[in-house]
Every structure is written in structure tokens, then in C-alpha cells.
Amino acid sequence: MFVSFSAASAHRRGAARLAAATLVSGLVAAGLLATAGVAAADGTPQSEGGATATMSGLKTFGAAVIHDGGTDEQVAAGLFEMSVDGGGTLQTYCIDIHNPSQRDAKYHETAWSGTSLNGNRNAGKIRWILRNSYPQVNDLAALAAETGAKGLTEQDAAAGTQVAIWRYSDGADVDAVAPQAQKLADYLEKHAQNLPEPAASLTLDPPAVSGHPGERLGPVTAHTNADGVTVTPPADAVANGVKIVGEDGKEISSAKDGSRIYFEVPKKAQDGSAELTVQASTTVPVGRAFASETRSQTQILAGSSESTVSATAAADWAATGAIPALSAERNCAKGGMDITAVNKGDEAFMFALMGSEHTIPAGRSQTVTIPLQEDQAYDFTIKGPGGYEKWFKGVLDCKTESSRSDVTTQTLSEPSPATAGVTAPTDTNLAETGTSNATPLIAGTAMALVVLGGAALLLIRKKTPPTQD
Length: 469
Description:
It contains five helices and 30 strands. The protein has 469 residues and is mainly beta. The strands form nine sheets. It has a six-stranded antiparallel beta barrel.
């Protein structure tokens, strides 16, 4: 783990900087009003923690036929492979049959609640299929004997497993072409049982904390299936007196599942921020979902090598005023992004959202859901007091293409952020299970927050009125 530290200069606390927001063609890039206070924390794209991987392509597959409205479409069906940042390999199946995959797309491990599995009463059956078929069961002779699929090859096993998953993830009318693959698919569909969602490989909760100098900020609790995680603060944080400590107040270089981690900030520290990352090597639990930063089909984990996983948490502190700690996560149940603001300062934290004003009193927190349109990419930085910023990037992908009737391509006009169409590769190693043109990606500016529906999001620090003589 590393911790990055930056201190705010004195003049930043006296300056108030405002950023305006505009909405174009249903997709808003809304800047946040920034005032004096907390120093900027260098950020990375928003992630819940766990494994981050890059799509390599469809590696082991057979053929399947989708029956839809009296027409038949033959597609490739099987196992994808992804390479993990920092080391490791993942094998996945897709859970959105009509949406193409994008080669080299970046994926993040995520909860089912942030994907099309949210609200799917058969999601647990998909996990059962994954645990009871290829590649978790890699003895093909035993798998064939159990399922009656004589002569089962790796390609047949992958195709049959993918077909069974599509029947539950998309409600698709789909069959495998090879008879033995079809037998496997039918067996898996018939015998599947609902299993609970697997826990994340590694997360930090909460992902953001705040407070005053002289305090221990936190706790941030580690949740992991790894034996332990590394905690290594960098020299610049140590030089400024910031320490990463455990519950006993002693500096730590490692932690484990359930460990409570704190940022110990010196009393005389200037207003500033620090960000820590914990890292481990472990296998990612089968059944974890992987969502892309672009419009690439959602994946579900079928197998994992020993892989690098990580999670980050940020801390911000100031002597006076509102001291925000902001985090976000996809909320498919509400069709949007939950923005959680915690105010550990001594003044109210105020913001206006979707035409409504919200006030978070000192010592309180509030979560606001920003409605987003399905399949819309977001790439935004939330600006706060004194240069505070938090970067969030991804795509709200809460529905399978087959469940949608409102798929449209939206365009933006200047001076909005630029758009770039993404075309699905024609390589036969990728599943061409739908349109070849993905929804345009929205490249946000450094001051932008993506919001839909004609709203502007403003974030300000409430100033104390002068006393009257």
C-alpha cells in the first residue's frame, strides 16, 4: 500500500472557486463549486476495490444459436480471458448476450448491485453453474459422465456453460450447436440452485474519511479473502508527519480481513489530504461481476489465478469549515449513482442537486442518487473545498440489451465534452452478439460531473455570516 500526501497553501483557504454546470442532449457535465479548505487528493477512476483487468478476448468457445422473433443468429459462446493489472489472469463468461465485448476494455470487480444482476432472481443460479461446470470442473470425463454429454471437449464445455448462463442472465432463447454442449447446457439449467453473492476479493469501507488535524481519521475497515494485505506509506507522507496506524495507535505495514485502519494526522498539520492503497495477492471468488469503464459487455468470473487486488481510501482534513469526504457507487435499483457526502467539519456543507438544495450539518452525512441513463458513460471529477477532488469513471450498465426497448444513440454539441464512437472488433475471437456500434463514450473534462435530466450539481462551503456589533 502507498499513501500520497499534499498540503494546502494558506492562500487556498481564502479563495473561493466556482464551476458552472451545463446539460446537453440528456448528458450533463456539471462542475462543482469549490471553496477554500481541503487540499486536492490525487485520484484514480472510481472502483469498489478488488481486481482490475483488461479484456484479452474470447479464448475457448463453440457456437450457439439465438432464437429471437422468428429469426436465428449464430454467435460464438464461451470463455473470455482478462489480464489483471499487477499480475494474474481471469476467465469469465458474459452476462449480456446482445452487447459486444471490446478488446482491451478495462474492467473492475464490482458488486451485483451495480450490474444487470441487480434484481435478477436467478443471479444465484448463475453462480451455481459457474461452480459446477467448466473450468471449475476441469475433469471433462467426469463432467460428461455427470451430465450425459459424451465426448465433451473444452470448447463444448465452455459453449454449453455460456448458453446455460445466458438463459438466466438474459432470459434468452438460446441453444448450443454441438449436441454434447447442448446436453450440458440443459443439465446445468435444470439443476441450478440459487447461491448467495460472493464477497469481494478486497475492499476498504468507507472509501473516504475526513476530520481535523490532531485526530485519528477513520476507521477504514479492510474486507478481503486474502491472508493479508500490504500497507506501505511513502516517504512524503512520513516527512509531513502523517502516519497509518491500527486500533492500538501503532504504525502498521500490513493488515488482514477486519483490520481497522486510521490516518493519524499531526495537530499542527496544514490542511491537506492523503490517499492509501492496500494490496494483496489472492484468487478472486467465482461469481464476482466485472463491469467495464466503456460500453463493453458485463462479465462474470469463472476462474482466477493468483492475482493482484487492491483498494483505496482517502482522508481529508482542515482546521475549520466544512470538511467533506465524498464517495460514489452505482445503484442499479435506483438507476443512477449514489453520491455519499460525509461532513466532519464545524460548518454545514451545502449543495444543490436536481433543483433541490441539500444541507449536511457538521458531523452528519447524506447520500444522494444522481439519475443516469442506461448505457451512458460517465467520466467526472468532483471538486470540493480547497482543491479537493475525486475522480469517477465508468458506464451505468444496469440492464441487458435484450431487456431494453429504449436503446438510442445520444450526441452532444459543443461546448460539451467530446464524444467518440466505439466500434466492436470484427475479430472472430470476440463474441459478436449484437450491434457493432457501442453507445458513444463521453469524455468528461477535469471539472465535470456527469448528471442527467437537466440538472446542475453545485457544491459549496457555507460561510458563517459576520457578527453584528
